[in-house]
Amino acid sequence: MTNQELVSALAKRLGWTQKQTSETLETTVSVINSNLEDNNSINIQGFGLFETKKKNERVSVNPVSKQRFLVPPKISVAFRPGQTIKDNLKKLEVNE
Question: pTM of the full predicted structure?
């Protein structure tokens, strides 16, 4: 689903214009991004949890040259689906 398809589907369900829906979606994503940048987790009831995870630095090896190098630490975003989504996916697996 593309962003435009999502905006169209939300606009139909909410009875809003596509412009209102697009602005609301952009604002929502902006709030989520700013909270993740501040290292806050975001729990959306019935959907899931977005959180940042710090990965420590590590030593890796190039498989071709066998040269060892240091991979710097980094912060990544992790998503854990909520129980509702897990249950819905299990139903899909059973039906197929």
Answer: 0.71
